[in-house]
Fold:
Amino acid sequence: MVQKSKRPPSAAKIAAPTAPKRRGRPRAYEPEVALGKALDLFRRDGFAATSLDDLSAATGMNRPSLYGAFGDKRELYIKSYQRYRDDARAAMVDIFRADAPLRERLERIYRIALDIYLSGESGPRGCFTVMTAASEAVSDPDIRTMVVEGLTELDKAFGICFRHAKERGELPEGADPASLAHLASATIHTIAIRARARVPRKELEAIVKGAVDVLCAAK
Amino acid sequence: MVQKSKRPPSAAKIAAPTAPKRRGRPRAYEPEVALGKALDLFRRDGFAATSLDDLSAATGMNRPSLYGAFGDKRELYIKSYQRYRDDARAAMVDIFRADAPLRERLERIYRIALDIYLSGESGPRGCFTVMTAASEAVSDPDIRTMVVEGLTELDKAFGICFRHAKERGELPEGADPASLAHLASATIHTIAIRARARVPRKELEAIVKGAVDVLCAAK
DNA sequence: GGAATTAAATGCGAAATGGTACAAAAAAGT
DNA sequence: ACTTTTTTGTACCATTTCGCATTTAATTCC
Structure:
């Protein structure tokens, strides 16, 4: 075995920023991938209906490994939810930051949202926040905090959009950016719920279209 | 130590409106009351996290009685959801039918909705449809059908409101009642979700206020 | 090659779960 | 009083669930 000291091979396809040269038996799973599988399950069935056996089967890790890697079921759920929020944020942040006309920005945001909510081989997956996390929020303060954070983050992002549009003269003088932002968030929420009930994409797009029309012409 | 035989009768306190003179041992529970308790539990914890033991304790019925009265757990869940929808409809139908200005009707509807979502001793209960039923909808066609029915019923009720308002000249000529109805439903959904995350009533009322302002002045 | 280290694999166990069988109890009909 | 009918109450069963203890495998360091 040569090649001992150098920062080597990057056999790891996910270009390891660090090549830590771990000491014991190597992992048989990639944590990121496994977490993604867990996320899919939790998202489809919720916290209580997802068993450790299900998670074990989906991730290919047996239970002790799961436990060692992510902690107990609740911790895994929370990490999954964090991952979901990170992914969703990453998918939207560019659009929110972009300097485009209001209507275009809204349309792009909603298209991304529909992609997220409607994907999944075993039926539409809906929104983690709306579907399962909000349910747990009543009884679990930590999850509740995350949910509230997610909600207000979305409100704020939309708020900046509308404030910006108003400054540019895309909205009438009397328009209230905060109210419009809440309605924009509400539209996200309503399509998340409807997607979960398998309302077809065409209908959801029609709802979005109507909402965008109102929001862009408001007041 | 004896006291074996008579058990104090604990007379059935309820005056039955109908005295059907049933044949066997009388029921020790009132089905409507028991269903209400089951509804509360399902609403708080969802389907999977609510055990038959929980239901048994809450209703005061032991499991065989539960089973005999309502069928298995899924049937009980569905009956609870039907009961919820009936109650919610009953609470709103008068307002939807009433002949009042648009703004007033909306305000009253949302006040009722907030009452429903925020009540409950162990925290706000949210909306059954949004919180637990929509989650089950992916995998259970019957529940999915009920959810879709509930959503479209609300859309339609709001749609009639806005169409009516437009005919009366309360809305501008260009307003689209269907889009406004979807936004009104979306506002219901967003406050249901936020209520579940324990957002205080004041904030929810502010969101409603902003939404009503936009919806009444739209286009 | 051997010790140390890390993870996988097996499997146990106590508790909980959904559902049911069966007997005791409480009423009406005879 | 006795039977019939309906419901209650107790106990049980098979399965599932979560979590962990223990053993085995793979790798690095010496």
User: Anything to note?
Assistant: Chain B touches chain A through 49 residues (CB under 8 Å). The radius of gyration of chain B is 21 Å.
